[in-house]
Amino acid sequence: MTLSADVMTLPADVMTLSADVMTLPADIMTLPADVMTLPADVMTLPADVMTLPADQRADPSERPLSTPAELVVAKQHVHQDIHNEGRRAPLKSSEVKNGRVLQPKSSGGQPGVRGQARVRGCGHSWRFWERSSLSWSSFTHGEVLPRSQLPSRPHSTGGTAVNTNATNIPVTRALKLAPVGGCVQWLSLPDEVWVSILSLLPHRDLSTVAQVCLHLFRLANDHTLWQVVSVENSSSLTDQWLSSVGGRNPRNLTIYRCSGLSITPGGLEEFFKLSQASLEELSVTSCSGPGLHGDLVLTLSAQHCDHMTRVDVSWSGATDTGIKALTDTCHRLKTVVLNGCQVTDEALNALLIRCRDSLRRLEVFGCLSISPSCLNTVSELCPGLETLNIGQIPKVTHPCLTLVTSRLKRLHSLNLTGLHAVSDQTVHRVLLQCPDLQSLTLSSCPGVTDMSLHKISTHAPRIRLLDVSGCSKVSDAGVKAVAVACRRLQHLDLSSTATGNRGVSLLANYCSTHLHTVKLSFCQISPEAIHNLSRRCKRLKLLHLYGCAYIPTEKEIRDINPTVKLYPLT
């Protein structure tokens, strides 16, 4: 250690320095006895330095700092070193003793406890919890980026901290900390872990979490948590809530079975104004109240969000008024879902002309006013359709279905629920004209028999979803044909059919690899067949047994296959 000339005074009886070697000022400082003691016959001092033996040399960082400002500069240097290294490092505290700043060194800490140190001259050990004002997190491509940190970090048990008093001089104080296992450890988790946890919560609960503390407020408002907003079965939606969500720039908003009694047109318009740069997908379905009426939603969204690609206003009371407003501004729509709406041929034809190049999915289930000529226009203007739902449209005829499917060669999903025009012959023609069909819904089609299932097994062996619920002429013979040929089947609905134990056993034997949803409501199934299906199908997630004579308990099914969710619950 090199000491300046004005640091110390040597006793007169130790040695005499000549005038040309060193002149000591009158207001010198005397070193404490426990810091350094120089024997009388140590050495001859050079003009400007004094060299101590190796075992008595102090750390160079323990030089005195002449002003409080130097303390601040020194601390900034430590932060800068941490920043340059790109890693976490503890910020060591310091102790003031007789005007000198002593840096504690690691020694004497408890075994196995990281970050402990003992202050020179003190008999107790203490832990450093302080960190740099920058925290670091590794990302997927190897880069290191800064992350924000708590305004005040919690302390560890039994530690000490350094504060500055009114004169800006560091002083030590004891820390009182939360016990191990308390909230301190939770708050110390990385932000990425917190965001992953909060992503599992519904959005109405995120608002509650945000009121706990400033740290959780910041995390709960992370933009990644509000890209896809979904609210279901809520009666407390207000204009303030919509404004809050719109300010977070959501990309997707889904409101299902909610009450719009507290929502005004002005509040809804404010939401679309705030989210006009980000909103791409909008779904407001099965809602009540004038504030969430389909026509109002479509009109206001079309005025401010003309770049939307997906719109779903099923069962919202939408009419031609809302459809025409949507048609006037939105020309890049890929998905339009109007199930249960009062739409006529005129409004739908205008929409098809506007979005003929981009439309890939169209659902008009239950739109009673749609005519066969309009469906012919659909197939003519939009040959690129991949999903078509025309269920419960009573005006559809067999020639119409044949013509429509002959033009839609890219169909992957087709829903013909409740169409009396559908027969085994119709199914055969559809399968020949749509070779890529992977989802087929024939629910409540009285003309469908086992012959249709044989045709499906022959022409659509790659089918993933099949719904023949309500087709009373479907029996074990048709189920056998599908089970043997369609090994990739994932979703099968046989509710209210003549399916029995033999058909269920065949499904368990041949479709056990991919099958995850089976609906057997109102079928005559024995306990052994149900147990065998649950045991063999390792990926089975959902099992419907409404109206069956034997319904096992949930515990009984879980003991066989813990992944299965049984309905009804018993």
Can you describe this structure?
The protein contains 18 helices and 22 strands. With 570 residues, the chain is of the alpha/beta class. Residues 83-117 are annotated as: Disordered. It comes from Coregonus suidteri. This is F-box domain-containing protein.
> Share of helix among residues?
25-40%
Compute the number of strand runs. Answer: 22
Distance between the termini: 81 Å
The biggest beta sheet reads: 14 strands, parallel
Calculate Rg over CA atoms.
38 Å
Which class do the helix and strand fractions yield?
alpha/beta
Strand proportion: 5-15%
Strand order of the largest sheet: 9-10-11-12-13-14-15-16-17-18-19-20-21-22
Unreliable stretches (pLDDT < 50, length at least 5) are: 26-31, 33-38, 40-52, 85-182
Discrete helix count = 18
Could you say which overall geometry the principal axes of the C-alpha atoms support?
Answer: globular
Mean pLDDT: 78
List the helices and strands and how they pair.
Blueprint: H1 68-85, E1 95-97, E2 100-102, E3 116-118, E4 125-127, E5 135-138, E6 144-147, E7 160-164, E8 170-174, H2 183-187, H3 191-198, H4 203-209, H5 214-220, E9 228-232, H6 239-246, E10 252-256, H7 265-274, E11 281-285, H8 294-304, E12 310-312, H9 320-329, E13 335-337, H10 345-354, E14 361-363, H11 372-381, E15 387-389, H12 398-407, E16 413-415, H13 424-433, E17 439-441, H14 450-459, E18 465-467, H15 476-485, E19 491-493, H16 501-510, E20 517-519, H17 527-536, E21 542-544, H18 554-560, E22 565-567
Parallel strand pairs: 9-10, 10-11, 11-12, 12-13, 13-14, 14-15, 15-16, 16-17, 17-18, 18-19, 19-20, 20-21, 21-22
Antiparallel strand pairs: 1-2, 3-4, 5-6, 7-8
Region (Disordered): 83-117
Protein name: F-box domain-containing protein
Biased composition (Basic and acidic residues): 83-98
